[in-house]
Amino acid sequence: MLGWIESFLVKYPELTLFLVIGIGYWIGSFKLGPLKLGPVTGSLFAGIAVGQVAHVPVSGMAKSFLFLLFLFGIGYSVGPQFMQALKRDGLKPVALAAIMAVTGLLTAIAVAKLLGLDPGFAAGLLSGALTESPAMGTATEAINALPLPAEVRARYVAHIAVADAVCYLFGAAGMITFMTTIAPRLIGVDLVASARALEAELGITRMAPGTQSAWRRFEMRAYAVGESARVIGMTVAEIEAMAVPHRIVLHRIRRDGTYRDLARDDRLAAGDVVAVSGRREVLVELIGRNNEEVEDRALLDITVAMLDVLVTSRDVAGRTIAALASAEMSRGIYLRALLRGGEEIPVAPGTEVLRGDVLRIVGDVAATDRAAKLIGPIVRPTENTDFVVLGIAIFLGGLAGVLIAIPVGGMTISLSTSVGTLLAGLVVGHLRTRHPLFGRIPDGAIALMTALGLAAFVAMTGLHAGPIFFEAVAEAGIGLLVGGAVVTMMPLLVGLYAGFYLLKLHPQILFGAMAGAQTMTAAMAAVQERSESNVAVLGYTPAVPIGHILLTSWGTVIVNVMAG
Hints:
Blueprint: H1 2-11, H2 13-28, E1 31-32, E2 35-36, H3 38-53, H4 60-85, H5 91-115, H6 119-129, H7 134-144, H8 150-186, H9 191-202, E3 218-224, H10 236-242, E4 248-255, E5 258-261, E6 273-279, H11 280-287, E7 292-294, H12 297-300, E8 304-310, H13 321-325, E9 333-340, E10 343-345, E11 358-364, H14 365-375, H15 387-403, E12 405-408, E13 411-414, H16 416-434, H17 443-465, H18 469-476, H19 478-502, H20 507-517, H21 521-531, H22 537-563
Antiparallel strand pairs: 1-2, 3-6, 3-7, 4-5, 4-6, 8-11, 9-10, 9-11, 12-13
């Protein structure tokens, strides 16, 4: 029976790959305390396990194809925030990400030289200890470009997966434990207290996890204009100005049984019934105190729209939520959510809106359409992928990666097709913030490219390494595990003290930026859970693009350094 299974897996490698991915996602769903392996690491372990049973042939072209799709998808996702991350307050998290990435590379090179590791083991040490699986791909490409016999290159590539698997567990668990337990003690910070302080500074109201208030900040109500009402004879614009600094909007009117929308220069008369929106307390205290509230479903039956709008306008980018709320463009619309780099950012008066953010606004159709024209393009769901841009961008990015070479010491390191493709995705992602119809790819397609692309690549790497896994572990010895722990901890220690004392980052921003520098969302989530707040995401979003670019590139660098 076992022989039949082995022959089947070898004869149909494409089916074996799907089996490994499925098992990998299943393995990745398990949690060990705060640590969740995730589908990528799960696929690596699944590939190694299946590789013990059968020597499954692995297609080099398929590996490269899937990995390039993954890299382009990652670049496309972080592109809208990349340039913005280099500006304003985002510069400090960016600097921290660069410091940690360089520290990680130098530590990995030093440890690899001390242990006498070959280029494959060294690259796996780096990718596993720094929890950056994409570095396995750039390292694989760099090894395949070395002027060595084919069997030596194949052994080095297998060693990447072995070292990554050995070092990843401590890399992930060590980072989560350090950031949630050790780091706060080292700098004398209480995570919960620091989160509350930052929330207060930003104007965020805390709610217990899993709960929400029955109170609604913004409402629409109908009021009758009494015979002695102060607003009789006043225009809509004048009435709305009376409420400043509060915001109210007069939408519709019922007069003599007839309903119509209000214009700014319309004047109210006794007996009118008006639909008014604004903050609940303003409606209750400012308007309801002297006016009769009535139930008028027809008057309040206003068609509203909720739109996701990409911020491209210079008049909007760089302003705070409070400043935008008082602007004329915001009349009749309310902010539901602010998304940055795919992560939801806390909405507070002091939160700054940046170019590339997505504002989720709600209001009547005319108001939301008017505001969208001033903010930027509406991000509407699409099912069509611009394969022209996708294909040509990956080709040109890969071509640039082959042609561009950077002199480092006494050697010249090619940028590589992998890094070139990552940068191509970043450029296309950035360009779509300026030209939203350019290179459109649905979010679902990007998710498939990144998730399946990397999981399949890592699964094939595991299948390739499986037959020699235990032999290679014995060859590397316990030094690989200890060295991996050193490579994990050194950037975290340097980043902690550099960020807190040199860059003077707020602890919540600091921990978020450290998680972004290591491109580890699980670490950010652990900090959020321990601090009972989601404000750490403000540091994560500007740091994660830099982390992805640098750490992925280090796979090429460490292979060339160790082979030199």
